[in-house]
Amino acid sequence: MPRGPTLLAIGVLAGLAFPALADAVRPLMAAAIFVLVLGTFLQVDGEAFRRALRRPLVWLLLPAAAMLACPLAVGFAARAAGFQAELFVALALSVCAPPSSGTAAVARMLGFDATVPLAVTLLSMALAPITVPLIAAGFTGLALDPLALAARLALLVGGAGAVALLLRQKAGTLLVKHSRSIDALVLASLLLFAVATMAGVRAQIETQPVAAFTCVGLAFACNVALQVLGALLTPGSLAERLTIGLILGNRNVGLVWSAMGAAVSPTTALFFAATQFPIYMTPRLIELIVSRRQKEESSA
């Protein structure tokens, strides 16, 4: 999807630059996520997806790393570093969230295989009602309702999966014919979500500039560290390793955010919003890394 990563970075900055626009599209966030998941289901090859699920790396190691190893490692590291209480809570909760729903779409946009991130994301979401409340309670003392989490995930994944299955059965040929249009729809939903996540962030930055820049810096540091860790510790080609990095670094904090309800403090909300910056801006950096590697290989 040419220029997709650049457009994502522009989208999140546009939401920050134009607060009225972010406020206007905020009610459309849920619809954007549904379209995003649906579009990803429609574009992933079923046989390739089943092959991916047979790999232990996909069905066991990566979900365990995403939902257990990474949250525990980050939580203990943040506690040892002596982070201020609210920042510690925000960081621990953000990393215990499952991988972002848009990771498969971003991988496809970058020209990577989307089957692995989709499979790991779905399996991680299945674990989330168990691991998220346990880790949240262990590190922060916060009680999250596992049944409510499960209901939200079942509605999102089950609904999008059912619609995708119906469309594949009834209009499979048309889907193949209009695959570029589906890609454009997925990109549009990602852009809409990127803009919507910035609702209220501009005002928070203006009233709490130090706290805001601290949250953004910490969000970038955590995301990039997890992406680098994933890329370094997994085998495969550069594209495969960068894909694993995306899975571990980009998290669906909106799920935890909504589950917390009124328990979300201003600092936690600000940090959750700040996590969107690396999610939407690092794909452009990854695109540059891949492009540079390809030029080096072609000139060798």
Automatic annotation (TrEMBL):
Keywords: Membrane, Transmembrane, Transmembrane helix
InterPro entries: Na+/solute_symporter_sf
Presence of the UniProt keyword Isomerase in the record: no
Transmembrane segments: 32-50, 57-81, 87-107, 119-143, 149-167, 187-205, 211-233, 254-274
Protein name as annotated: BASS family bile acid:Na+ symporter
Source organism (scientific name): Bradyrhizobium macuxiense
Taxonomic lineage from the root: Bacteria, Pseudomonadati, Pseudomonadota, Alphaproteobacteria, Hyphomicrobiales
